[in-house]
What we know:
The chain is mostly helical. It is 57% helix and 0% strand. The protein has four helices and no strands.
Amino acid sequence: MNEVERELLGALVALERIAGSGEPGPKPGLGEALARVESTARRLPVGSAPDLLHYLGKRSYEKARLFLEGRDPEQGACPR
């Protein structure tokens, strides 16, 4: 994993933490977290994994995180 991918993984984890806080109403910091994910994703080098780029392009941020963690994003949250 390169430096930008490590930074992207951290940004995705932070985004999920804010978005999934369980608190009703506005999520403070959500816009900034999303902007960080998007700006970091734009810095990925040419030749980055096509699957990762696909997940990011579709805003499938959980799948992008799972991919970066070396897990199977297509397996879903409830593996059998």
